[in-house]
Amino acid sequence: xxxxxxxxxxxxxxxxxxxxxxxxxxxxxxxxxxxxxxxxxxxxxxxxxxxxxxxxxxxxxxxxxxxxxxxxxxxxxxxxxxxxxxxxxxxxxxxxxxxxxxxxxxxxxxxxxxxxxxxxxxxxxxxxxxxxxxxxxxxxxxxxxxxxxxxxxxx
Length: 155
Known about the structure:
Distance between the termini: 11 Å
Number of strands: 0
Radius of gyration: 18 Å
Strand content: under 5%
Number of helices: 4
Helix content: over 70%
Order of helices and strands: HHHH
């Protein structure tokens, strides 16, 4: 049973950490290049929609993985695991941050669907602030996932 819990735990942490790194390091720079100030506004709007959609899909998957991790750690806690409380706390914090991130992404998606120009987004500072919030929520999720991956395996 412990081997199954460990496999589920590592898979869930891998989805959160690796998915976040791929989105931040590979996908985001490509999409930002297409949204540069000199680019066509219609292209920038389309790229903003693609970007918001891609992040939404990742955030939903990462939230499911964090909740799966929490369920795994809760099971381990009931079985008397040594580090289960710490891992459970970390997974619940990740889930909470990802839920907030999904909420912020929903507002970006609604703005995108309403036809607001991605280059304007209502006001440039408002759009920048919203993107900054998403970035600030992403960093702790990746750090927590990394810490949980590197710490001793619960047992």
